[in-house]
Amino acid sequence: MAIATPSAETDATLYRTRHDPDSSEPISRSIYTALAAVEGVAPPELDVRLYDSVDVEALDDLFRANADDEWEFTVTVEQYAVRVRADGRIAVSPAAE
Fold it and tell me: How large is the average pLDDT for residues 64-88?
C-alpha cells in the first residue's frame, strides 16, 4: 500500500508517494497507482504500460531484496520520469525532452 501526497514543492515533481515496505503489494503496484493519480484515472484505467519501460518483476525483486540498502533509479515511462528509492519513495515528474 502506498501513502500518497501531491507534491507541494517548487520542483517539477507532479506526484510523490511512499510504498509501505510491510505491505504485501509489490512496489510496482504503488508506481502504477502514482502514475494513475497523475493521469487522473483509477489504476485499472491507466493507459500507461510500465512493463514497456522496465522489467516489473525485476523491480519488485530489487525492492524486496535490497530495501535496507541505499539505491535509487529513474525510469522514463512514456512522458513521465519515475524515480524509485530503496526506502520506497516514488516521485513522478515530467520526462526531460
Answer: 88
